[in-house]
Amino acid sequence: MLDLFTNTNSKKDFFSNGLMQEIQKDMDIYIASAFFTEVDVIDELIKNNCRIRIIVRLGFPTSPLALKHLLKHKNIEARFYTSHEFHPKLYIWGDKKIFVGSANLTKAALLRNQEIMIGILPDDLRFEELTYLFLGYWQEAKVLTLEEVEKYEKVYKSYKDKLDAINDFDDEVQKVLGDHNFPNIQRYEVKQSSSELFFDNFLKTYQESVHAYNFIEDEYKKKGRKVNSELIPLRLEIDSFFSFVRESHAVHETWRDQDLGWNDNNRMILNNLIDEWMNIDWAHFEQRIVKQNYPFINSILGSVDSINEATASEIVDALCVTHSFHDRLRFFKGGLDTLKEAFLNQNELSKVKNTLAYLLHDQKNPIGKRIANCIYNPNFKLNEFGQSNVQELIGWINNENMPVINGRTTKVLRYFGFDVRQVN
């Protein structure tokens, strides 16, 4: 499936179909659309008990009737801008897919106009960046109330038949309701409270992966240990087992093709692979991770004091122990040195240390809250250090025995039949 929608009759790739087919019950939905007239999609979402947060622009052709429709439902929160410059078309369908492109939430854009929309999956790095963008839009947008809609409706009716004067209409809207614009210069300066927007959704998907991991751990414990338990935590031994599975069995895209469900067949596959793993030499685990990587990362990040005493270079070297952070170097010409330079240039060392100390050693907040804040809260979020990096790092260093959750983890969990969200 291309996840490309152009509203071409011969291809029948209508964007409305793309949206409707991806709806699932109880989804969290986030929409940013400059123009809004189409309520059929909204009704379908409501029918499936989805929670909707939508941002629109008050300006022609956005319909007052459609706006009033939003305010009727308790599952909908609506906000708005009035500026011409607010012009996104962004549809976030929970943690499953994001649609982005040229189509507004109007019937013409969904079915008739020549539009270009693409679907983006969670394992795409752009997925995370687009959620940050929505956070910024949401934080700065004004809350839509019935009073605001009624003001807008008066202006709308007075200009409805004067399409040639559409710019005058928009100017009048701004005069009556104020020039409310998203400040591009502050795009990533999201206020702390907005980290709550995605918190519940994140926590559900994170716990989903941890829950699936626990089934694997229960089976693994029955087999004993590959190395002495005093050398490395069980969760990191299992992480290396996942690496073995990914490299030797769940290769390429085969992890997508396995039957869903934790059943006797998948349990048998798991046990056979654990037996195979226990009886082979895996030098990267036994020689590199056990003897070098874990002792090193623990010496740098294992306590608040060691973090504060570490140099910038030592901290980045410790982060590079994690697979997901080291894997980012493929996006940097010049390799590892360029990655390190970019990370340090884009983050103040004091903030890096504060974030790492909070993530790994804070005792006031539960681990899920700390992870979410380091992903979404600008007081803790680091540049060039995304969701997969945060989740994997806390798997290396924590007192709650939380496993490593990164892109490799979720692919292997899917290989064993667990329907978990994929992270990049």
Automatic annotation (TrEMBL):
- Source organism, top-level taxon: Bacteria
Any Pfam family: PLDc_2
Which residues are in coiled coils?
none
Q: Annotated Gene Ontology MF terms?
A: catalytic activity
The UniProt entry's GO biological process terms, in alphabetical order, are: phosphorus metabolic process
PLD phosphodiesterase domain: residues covered = 82-109
What is the official name of this protein in its record? Alcohol dehydrogenase
Phylogenetic classification of the source organism: Bacteria, Pseudomonadati, Pseudomonadota, Gammaproteobacteria, Moraxellales
